[in-house]
Design brief:
Blueprint: H1 5-12, H2 20-31, E1 38-42, E2 49-53, E3 58-60, H3 66-81, H4 86-108
């Protein structure tokens, strides 16, 4: 079982009747690989899909890129509503992605790890 486009749209609050540009971006987001150490898993009890980060040993019902995708799709939707050209739309998306990358790099600037604990586990 794999996450299908419709499940991603639902999780992101995007209507299947959204503008074609929004749907195209959502479909492309769906095709992107998960971030490093993230995988899609199946809950044995409910049969529902969830996401697992093997480095952190953490699980989540939310797609690991959900917030980023929501921001991008919201931007695309606003550009469609303002009738922006595709060239402007592409430029704006690139700017937003660059800003997100800067923010992520700043968030990781002081990160250290993995660190080995006395019991041999890594954190």
């Amino acid at each position: 079982e794999h996450l299908v486009v419709e499940q991603l749209l639902d999780a992101l609050g995007i209507s299947p009747m959204a503008a074609p540009a929004v749907m195209e971006v959502a479909k492309r987001a769906h095709m992107l690989p998960y971030p490093p150490n993230w995988s899609e898993e199946l809950d044995a009890a409910s049969g529902a899909l969830y996401f697992y980060n093997s480095m952190k040993d953490e699980s989540s019902w939310q797609h690991p890129m959900a917030n980023t995708y929501k921001e991008i799709l919201s931007l695309v939707e606003s550009m469609v509503l303002s009738r922006a050209t595709f060239g402007n739309l592409g430029l704006r998306i690139e700017q937003e992605l660059a800003e997100s990358q800067k923010k992520a790099a700043a968030d990781l600037a002081n990160w250290v790890g993995p660190v080995e604990a006395e019991d041999g586990a890594y954190y």
